[in-house]
Design goal:
The complex is a heterodimer of chains A (about 200) and B (about 260). By secondary structure, chain A is mostly helical. Chain A contains 11 helices and no strands. The chains are: A mainly alpha (about 200), B alpha+beta (about 260). Chains A and B meet through α3, α4, α5, α6 and α8 of A and α2, α3, α4 and α5 of B.
């Protein structure tokens, strides 16, 4: 019931992804090729943003897609659309690559153990926007936040930093940083929820 | 504020991986109690966090990565097939019985197999034709889009002058809504593992060049670059520039611009 409420009605794009991933289980190379062509740009852009180095980013993107090819069964369409799952996998891989052995690393490694569980399900307002429109809306909504708030969210997402680490880096009170991040994400949610 | 409300406020940061150890442990303990409201909120927050990936500046992986990856995948697929067929081998004495059975059933199955192959062949042809039609449609759409940009009176056209006077100049056309179109001929191929990259130079003092498309000339030295969705608006851009960069492109220019064209 819960998933039925949270999972959007299948758009053609979402259905196509699920079909292609299913074909990977039969070792269908052309399905892999299509999935790569459909999503490699956003995956590469994300990983490059995190690692800031093109050759390392390509290594990680290769790793992500090989993992998809070898462990396609770990994606379960019933638990949410494919792209957020793939992006979560790519982010975790890139952050793992970025980190040295530290407390911060341990925290994120724990999260990366089970990509299926952390993919997340979209709320019912999700309208399966195409990639270009989705990028425009997310950029506009986050760009409308105050610059420090935007910076805090980017540091959490792209650098994997904790509240305390962000507060120290920005020289702001911890409570302020916590509010910025939460309120920023809630603004993003409200913006995506609003009619386009 | 109840304990539950306190935990509810941690969900978004938890989905981002930004909680400090103490908050994280407390929230995980609360989730372990089976709180349905917080579990539902976490699912949604994780999806929301994944949308932040779209804040990353657009970038394209190199063609070499695609080729390398597909080669690996094809190799693994063919290895898996041969390994599956070897797992299916049977002791020699069973082959005699199997061969006898095959003789008996061969004639009836042959027809079914032939029919199946014909269906597969028809399906493959249909799929190939569909792919070809989609490719043609995409080319047609791109050509229409480019023609529209070139013909529209609101487009701004400007030359991109080469740093090296022996090199040909490029022509750029920028439509305020439909994007940027850059063309040129007799452009030399960049060095091995190198690529040409377009940059948008902002007007704002101290503004960093904004990375855009990477590209190569074709075999005849012709360049056609289309940027559908430039990250900067024309009024905020001083110039376009093209540099040579390592394959895969760069986030900041690493060489002197080979071509520069003033937007306004």
């Amino acid at each position: 019931m819960f998933l039925a409420v949270l999972t959007p009605k299948d758009s053609p794009e979402v259905s196509l992804d699920a079909t292609l991933v299913n074909r990977l289980l039969q070792r269908d190379v052309s399905a892999f090729e299509q999935l790569y062509d459909r999503h490699s740009r956003i995956v590469y852009a994300l990983v490059l943003r995190i690692l800031q180095q093109a050759s390392t980013a390509e290594e990680v993107v290769q790793d992500v897609f090989l993992q998809l090819w070898r462990n396609a069964a770990r994606y379960q369409a019933a638990r949410g659309p494919f792209v957020p799952w793939l992006l979560t996998l790519a982010r975790n891989r890139a952050l793992d690559h970025l980190r040295l052995k530290s407390e911060r690393q341990r925290r994120l490694e724990d999260q990366s153990e089970e990509p299926i569980a952390i993919a997340g399900a979209p709320p019912e307002y999700e309208k399966a926007l195409d990639e270009k429109r989705r990028a425009e809306r997310v950029r506009a909504l986050i760009g409308a936040l105050n610059p420090q708030q935007k910076k805090a969210i980017e540091m959490a997402y792209f650098e994997g930093l904790s509240h305390t680490e962000i507060a120290e880096a920005l020289k702001e009170p911890l409570g302020t940083v916590k509010s910025w991040i939460r309120n920023g994400l809630l603004r993003l949610k409200e913006g995506l929820q609003a009619p386009s | 504020m109840s304990d539950h409300d306190q935990f509810r406020e941690l969900i978004e940061a938890y989905a981002l991986g930004a909680l400090d150890e103490q908050d994280r442990a407390a929230l995980e303990a609360h989730l372990a109690t089976g709180c349905a409201e917080c579990s539902n909120a976490l699912q949604e927050a994780r999806w929301l966090a994944s949308q932040l990936a779209y804040l990353a500046p657009p970038a394209e992986p190199s063609d070499m990565l695609r080729a390398r990856l597909l080669q690996k995948v094809r190799t693994e697929a063919s290895t898996a097939k041969s390994s599956a067929s070897s797992r299916g081998s049977v002791p020699y004495w069973l082959w005699a019985g199997a061969a006898a059975l095959l003789v008996v059933t061969f004639y009836s199955t042959w027809n079914a197999r032939r029919l199946q192959m014909e269906i597969e062949a028809v399906n493959e042809r249909a799929a190939a034709e569909l792919r070809q039609r989609q490719q043609l449609q995409q080319q047609l759409d791109a050509a229409k889009h480019q023609a529209h940009i070139l013909m529209d009176p609101t487009s701004k056209k400007f030359p991109m002058w080469p740093h090296d006077t022996q090199m040909p100049r490029l022509e750029a056309t920028w439509h305020p809504e439909m994007g940027i179109f850059v063309t040129g001929e007799k452009i030399p191929m960049p060095g091995s593992h190198r690529v040409l990259q377009l940059w948008l130079i902002p007007k704002a003092p101290g503004g960093k060049p904004m990375p855009s498309r990477t590209f190569w000339p074709d075999a005849q030295g012709k360049v056609v670059v289309m940027v559908d969705n430039p990250p900067e608006v024309m009024a905020e851009t001083k110039a376009l520039a093209i540099t040579e960069e390592p394959a895969g492109g760069s986030l900041q220019p690493t060489s002197t611009p080979m071509w520069v064209g003033g937007v306004s």
